[in-house]
Amino acid sequence: LELLAKDCTKELCDLELDSDYLLRYKLNIPEDSSAVECTGCTISMELIYEGEAWISIAFSNDGKMVGSEAVIGTPVDGNVLKYIMESKVMSGVERMPESQQTLMDASIEVTDDGQTIMKFTKLMREPGE
Description:
The structure is a single chain. The protein is mainly β. The chain has one helix at 2-5; strands at 13-18, 21-28, 42-50, 55-59, 69-74, 79-85, 93-95, 104-110, 115-123.
């Protein structure tokens, strides 16, 4: 209920995905748009994992993995990139073309106390996605 009480357009909202995995997010609505219309809206996300690992989050229209779009961060090389999930096997995880790598302010790091933190801002509506 605390999640519903917050205005996630004004401050970061927290959602515990698992006991060691936290999602913080904020919806960014341009001044010349509305939450209903949402032209040019972005979402800023911060994922915090208690440990050192690659981390990801996926977006789906039907709640299924296959056909979804994922953002995957790998702290070893510092990459935070968008992927298409073509199947449930590793060979079906395909990096989107450079023209679709539209994440803003993307970063991933492992902190001194062992947390992996991935941050990015993503357009809410993108052509072909």
